[in-house]
């Protein structure tokens, strides 16, 4: 259960993003906040990765001077291409997400982005590796996505609002960006990279790509106390700490399962909005919380039962 709990805790960290932003400066643009978050968090993860990689290099056996050099070069080229793809996915997610919410509102934009991410992840994983994520994953993902939709209000009070097709495509693009990042990171882990090195390389690359995005925007909010505290929380907690947990769990769970478990993010965000920010919840949203929790439990509980049965069988032997 530890990998499941690690991913759920990472999703809880992700879910504090909106509340932290609500306590930050009102004049901070979404683009500059996202770039600052990736730059700070990615920088921390990059340093951790360099330290971890340095220790591994010192403890590694001497290189074999045989004729395997061309193979090693091709392997390194493939892995660094995966790093680039994952970093581009991280960077692309934020503008696509905010473009979707700007066009169709927070409710529709959020539910399409977060709801489409686990579905796209599972389908891409199935297409690339010919491995169906499983019936339990499919049922849990559908149940959790319905819960997100109920929380957002899309199935209730937002039904009469016309939907912008470009905004809808942007939200799906955000979900696809998340799927690409998750699968590329999972591939690096399967190549033998440690979770800290994987997250550091990916987010370190994303941090470098975010530098021009940050300085192309208005960054005066970073010079205020509220802005600095918000940026540090978003960078340290919701990025560095969260993605260390996320990477550790991703190394031990299927990518599709991890993507569905991160739907605990809107669950956390909704609870914080109610308990901390004083936002009111409709009866539909309360029902959505219960449905979303049920979807997450459908993924977590079978793993706990399998673990318990395995321990019981081992004890009997």
Tell me about this structure.
This protein has 317 residues and is mainly α. It has one domain (2-22, 32-53, 75-307). It is 80% helix and 0% strand. The chain is built from eleven helices and no strands. α1 crosses α10, α3 crosses α8 and α4 crosses α6. It is globular and about 55 Å long. The model has no long low-confidence stretch (mean pLDDT 79).
Radius of gyration: 20 Å
Element-by-element helix/strand order? HHHHHHHHHHH
Q: Which runs of at least 5 residues are low in confidence (pLDDT < 50)?
A: none
The secondary-structure class comes to mainly alpha
Number of domains: 1
Distance between the termini: 23 Å
- SS field, number of helical segments: 11
Q: What is the helix fraction of residues, given as a range?
A: over 70%
């Amino acid at each position: 259960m530890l990998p499941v709990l690690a991913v759920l805790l990472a999703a809880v960290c992700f879910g504090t993003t909106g509340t932290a932003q609500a306590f930050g400066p009102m004049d901070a643009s979404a683009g500059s906040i996202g770039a600052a978050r990736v730059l700070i968090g990615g920088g921390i993860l990059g340093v951790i990765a360099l330290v971890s990689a340095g220790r591994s290099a010192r403890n590694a056996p001497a290189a074999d001077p045989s004729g395997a050099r061309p193979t090693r070069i091709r392997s390194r080229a493939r892995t660094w291409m995966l790093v680039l793809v994952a970093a581009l996915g991280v960077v692309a997610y934020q503008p696509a997400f905010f473009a979707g919410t700007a066009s169709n509102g927070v409710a529709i934009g959020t539910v399409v982005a977060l709801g489409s991410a686990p579905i796209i992840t599972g389908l891409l994983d199935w297409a690339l590796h010919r491995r169906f994520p499983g019936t339990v994953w499919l049922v849990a993902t559908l149940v959790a996505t319905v819960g997100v939709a109920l929380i957002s209000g899309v199935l209730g009070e937002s039904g009469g609002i016309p939907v912008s097709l470009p905004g809808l495509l942007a939200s799906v693009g955000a979900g696809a960006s998340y799927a690409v990042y998750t699968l590329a990171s999972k591939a690096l882990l399967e190549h033998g990279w440690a979770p800290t090195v994987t997250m550091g390389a990916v987010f370190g690359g994303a941090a470098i790509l975010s530098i021009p995005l940050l300085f192309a925007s208005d960054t005066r909010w970073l010079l205020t106390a509220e802005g600095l505290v918000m940026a540090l929380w978003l960078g340290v907690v919701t990025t560095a700490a969260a993605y260390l947990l996320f990477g550790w769990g991703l190394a031990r769970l299927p990518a599709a399962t991890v993507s569905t478990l991160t739907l605990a993010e809107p669950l956390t965000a909704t609870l914080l909005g109610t308990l901390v920010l004083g936002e009111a919840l409709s009866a539909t949203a309360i029902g959505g919380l219960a449905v979303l929790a049920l979807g997450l439990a459908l993924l977590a509980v079978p793993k706990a039962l399998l673990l318990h049965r395995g321990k019981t069988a081992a004890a009997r032997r």
